[in-house]
Design a protein that fits this description.
Helix content is about 65%, strand content about 15%. With about 350 residues, it is α+β, with helices and mostly antiparallel strands. It has two domains: about 1-140, no CATH class; about 160-340, 2-Layer Sandwich (Heat Shock Protein 90). Strands 2-4-5-7-6 form a five-stranded mixed sheet, covered by helices on one side. Strands 1-3 form a two-stranded antiparallel ribbon. α3 crosses α4 and α5 packs antiparallel against α6.
Length: about 350
Amino acid sequence: MWSKLPPFWKYQIGGWTVYALIAIPVKWALFHSFSGALISFYRELLGLILTYGMYLVYRRIYGRWRVSRILPIVFALSFAGSALEMLASFALHNVIVFEEADFSSDATRMGALYYRTAVFAGWSFLYFVFRLIYESKDLQNRLAEALAHHRESEIQLLRSQMNPHFLFNALASLRACVERSRDEFRSVIQALGNYLRYSLDHGSDCFVSLGAEFEATRDYLEVEKVRFQDDLDVQTHIDDGARTVPIPGVILQPLVENAVKYGRETSERPLKVRLRVTRPTSGRVRIAVSNSGRWQEPQETEKSSHLGLQNLRRRLELLYGQLHQMKIAHDNGWVTVTLDIPTA
């Protein structure tokens, strides 16, 4: 059960337990009675409860407020927590009389108040320190995982360049072009060469310009268009302002590849594929890939079903966290996958 607790509760319970184990022997040594130890027990239990309330406040303001605004909140909550603990102590002392704990003098009360305020302030300081350490490690882990995932995607990209199935289809398209038109043959050779050159030139780049990615995807669609002829109708558009936006490499191809692959299974002929890249705001870019047909839910028995979309979704989560959106809509005979990602 302990292993399933969130990190906060592990530190919270462990920290207050250690503090109590230190304070109880000290009280026992000072008062030489069980009541002194009992005082520490209920105070540390109150401390655990009160600091949880402080945690709820700190969690809301952390990362949103500046340090200059957080510090007064820390001291105010620490003093308030100490005062509440003192009131609870007075109430308990009215029920159980501790001869060793005399709160009748103002000096004793103020000393206890200041001491517990310092304890709560120290807890607050440790909370922010551990929060920074934890988030720093989490960021390092995310970056390491993103790098590993990028390397995996790079390997997959290099493999796709020499994928026998892809090359077979490309050669079939070239053979058909030779039989039909020399000009069409040159066009497909140019598109295939551009696509492979882009893959080689940018295979190790984590980010590429959206314009370069868009043109490479159009070359990919050009090869597919020759392969399927009149059975495939492709339209593409990109806003001029979106061409220079840096994006993770190889995010358009999985979308259009998925549209062609699964669209052909459910769409009437010709299959219609639309690629549209816009920049609705200065800080965002939107990529929409639509195809005629119906959406097919991934089958549990087919591990490769929509694998490209799954890998893409995971990469975007690693790179952007909650700053991106990926939506899938299907109605009126169309399936649309929309990506909304930040430009910086």
